[in-house]
Amino acid sequence: MRVRALLPLTLLFLALPGCSEAEGAQVSRVTGGGLLYTVATVDLRRDRLSLHWRNPTTGEPYRTFEELRRRLAKEGRALVFATNSGIYAPGLRPLGLHVEGGRTLLPLNNARSGGNFALRPNGVFWVKGTRAGVTETDAYRRLNPAPDFATQSGPLLLAGGRIHPEFNADGTSFKVRSGVGVCKDGAVKFAVSAGPVNFYSFAVFFRDTLGCPDALYLDGSISAYATAQADTQFADFAGLWAVTR
Length: 245
Known about the structure:
Layout: E1 13-15, E2 26-32, E3 35-42, E4 48-52, H1 65-74, E5 79-84, E6 88-89, E7 93-94, E8 98-100, E9 103-106, E10 123-128, E11 131-136, H2 137-143, E12 149-153, E13 156-159, E14 162-163, E15 178-182, E16 188-193, H3 199-209, E17 214-219, E18 225-227, E19 240-244
Antiparallel strand pairs: 1-2, 2-3, 3-16, 4-19, 5-18, 5-19, 6-7, 8-9, 8-12, 10-11, 10-12, 13-14, 13-17, 15-16, 15-17
């Protein structure tokens, strides 16, 4: 029996315990299309969002939210929210562009075949000061925004409100998925689904429920998040996005 991907749209916002706007990113449970998501809303005018790959003390990838939490605590920073930054290669190496603290640690990946990452159009999520964007890979190369932080992944979920041309409502690939969008008001929103969802419905969630015209898929079945009280990680990661206070 084929399961329809797009269900009647419903909304439910429930703040997670211990998280509030005063502490940093607002982390909420949100339902859209009949599926529950964890959504972190980041206001770059107030919140500190950063990307991390290797622990400067050991030179090794952080691997876990807990290791990153401990490192940040040494710097006087409390972790409010974290999620994995995107698809990575063996050896816990980000598969595409990775910019950290204004330094390009890995260049743009121009692959046009080989898994979700290369399902063009793919793109880059970038942060520069109080601005953020989700930009198609070739357009990013032309724009050259010199960001403070950036990660490349794929496929793009949305570009200017348009759903990726390869997605369809009856798509049969259902997985837990994570992504990031930049919304009409400039807010950054990370979302991790609580259950399996196809690409089309995930894109619709960002567009119609979260109000983000531009959004990028980050990763699939192993995607997870951490807050001050919760940690859903069960596999090692390469890059990690973190909101701190």
